[in-house]
Amino acid sequence: MRNATADSAARETVWNAPGMPALLLLTATGFSGFAVLLPTAPLWAVDGGADAAGAGSVNAVLMLCTVLAQTLVPTAIRHLGWRTTLVCGMVLLGTPALLHLLTAHLGAVLALAAVRGLGFGVLTVCGATAVAELVEPARRGKAVGAYGLAIAGPQFILVSTAPWAAENLGFEVVFAVGALPLLGVLPALRLARRLHEHPAGTEDPPRRDTSEGGRTAYLPLIPPMLLLLGATTAGGALITFAPQMSSDPTATLAGLLLLTGTAAVARWRFGALADRYGTRPFLWPLVIVTAVGLTLTAWAVTTPEATGVVPLLAGTALVGVSYGGLQNLTLVDAFAAVDRRSSGVASAVWNIGFDAGTGLGALLVGYLATGASFSLALMATAVLSLVTLPLAFVRRREAGPHHPAD
User: 242 pLDDT exceeds 60?
Assistant: First the structure.
């Protein structure tokens, strides 16, 4: 019996650790529904007669309600439990996709975006918190990498192809895919059963440094959140404005695929590196990579009528590496900054930094490009990312003992 138990433990990885398959399936279905509507819900509003400003407000409302929900999720888990919180989140995220078929009126699309934002906020915080609950700190980097791949994979496929599908296959197909979070209810129930014995915020005795410091106990969360914000500002800017920056549609599509593809791989692979070496050796190089990638992209779009294809592709690929890598490393640092019973708070703060950065990138580049140019706007974003560089050298406690990757 003992040998069978030892063999089972030896075969266990972060991919098949108890609860992880359910979490990864839940994440993949949820983010598929989110990703496919991110570029197409605004198009649906335009189809219903909205102007560019109205279409742009769709995702603004989505992210605003996402951040609002993220601030409330740790409390919801404590008072409602994992099961109710997760199921409500998936229903709120998936149901509006089908309701879009009833009308394309801007008011209705905005209302559905608000509901989707609430569901997405629940999914993001619950998913990241569950990683910390399911896997011990020594393997947390790999677990965050697997979780990140379940997020980035659907985004890589769907963000760039959804507009084409809406135009060539019809919005009905897109909205059907957008309802995939409803299929995530079943893995949500399985995940909740696994987490039920150790609900977030109650299972472990609090550490002295986080229980007696009040709000100051969470100050260590600020550096990883701001580092993340610098990276997601860059990523959000390119995802939002790449089609408008470039005069070459083929290069634009290739650039977006490189951005999301390298981000997916980096978010996955940096997990093993973080477990082996810690996060600190990789933070400052990735901040510099962000700035270099943005600079190359700014150079590529200096002349709007003649996009430089090679610097555009190189720039988006570099930003993708830092965009994905910093997502992994800063989440590992956020969990290491607090005790396990506060993992829900760490997850919420991290996700707020992610979504705030995405929105800031769109607003900053849009404002500067209107008054000057996309090239100048991207250079300003590069400077913003470099401002966060000193935070990469802040001494922080690592998540756990490091050992060679499995």
Answer: yes
- Which residues does 290 contact at the CB level (< 8 Å), separation at least 6? 230, 231, 234, 318, 319, 322, 323, 326, 382, 385
Distance between CA atoms of residues 137 and 121, nearest Å: 24
- All residues at 6 or more sequence positions from 352 whose CB lies less than 8 Å from its CB, including other chains: 67, 70, 71, 225
Asked if 274 contacts 329 with a C-beta cutoff of 8 angstroms, the reply is yes
Query: For the CA atoms of the chain, what is the radius of gyration?
Result: 21
Instruction: Please check the confidence at residue 102 and state whether its pLDDT lies above 90.
Output: yes
- Dihedral sign for Cα atoms in the order 98, 19, 232, 216: positive
Res 390 pLDDT > 90: yes
- 130, 196 Cβ separation under 8 angstroms: no
d(CA 227, CA 222): 9
The whole-angstrom separation of Cα 290 and Cα 339 is 30
Q: Give dist(CA 118, CA 92) in Å, integer.
A: 7
CA angle in degrees (0–180, nearest 5) for 69-359-61: 50
Banded model confidence at residue 256, pLDDT cuts 50, 70, 90: confident
Query: CA 143 to CA 45: how far, in whole Å?
Result: 38
Q: Which long-range contacts (CB under 8 A, 24 or more apart) does 277-280 make?
A: 277/402, 278/398, 278/402, 279/141, 279/329, 279/330, 279/332, 279/333, 279/396, 279/398, 279/399, 280/392, 280/393, 280/396, 280/398
Q: What is the pLDDT of residue 197?
A: 58
- Each residue of 146-164: b (16+ CB within 10 Å) or e? bbbbbbbbbbbbbbbbbbe
Instruction: Note the pLDDT tens digit of each residue in 373-387.
Output: 889 989 999 999 999
What DSSP assignment string belongs to 232-287?
A: HHHHHHHHHHHHHH-S-HHHHHHHHHHHHHHHHHHHHHHHHHHHHH-SHHHHHHHH
| DSSP 3-state percent helix, strand, coil across the chain (nearest 5) | 85, 0, 15
Length of the chain: 406
